Amino acid sequence: RGRSRAVSGYSLLLFVMQSLPIITSVVPLFILFANMGLVDNLLGLTIVYVASTMTVATWMMAAYFDSIPASLEEASWIDGCSVFGSFTRVVLRNSLPGVLSTAIFAFLLAWNDYLVAIVFLRSNEIFTLPMGVQSFFQQNQTDWGGVMALAVVMMLPPVIVFPALNQSSSVGGIGGSLAGR
Questions:
Q1: Which of 58, 100, 131, 147 can pair with 127 through a Cys bridge, CB separation 3.0 to 4.6 Å?
Q2: Residue 1 belongs to some domain of the structure
Q3: What CATH number does residue 32 fall under?
Q4: Confidence (pLDDT) at 119
Q5: Residue 144 forms part of a structural domain
């Protein structure tokens, strides 16, 4: 909550990093990961996805944490909670919709990505579903039935997961928690 100069500088750095597209860092990352043995490896691809979505996730969560009134934390301190207890029992519990929205957004970014996967996964044994769609397109023919079937399979996890997570989050859960406001 308290913004120091270091936090403001870090926020500016995150904003600059977020404004650069991932394509600008693919070649240096490929060279670095090739030296570390993380090319053609799901661990390397996962590291790239986590790092690329971290800036957006940080901004989303910071905006959601800023929307939670500080008076809720102060009230829990008066009731005897420690700073950590107040964070876990009040702030994290009330930020569950923001955490779920951020998780869904990060999942969809990684789930639908083609560019990073095509660069970092080199063999035919390891591939993501967007790369699998490419295998249905040949020089002179396209298996449109296979493309559409795979498109349906690719839609299933987001279509199933989103309603399940949406039921467990509540919108406006802190609206009545502050009397007189």
A1: 131
A2: no
A3: 1.10.3720.10
A4: 93
A5: yes
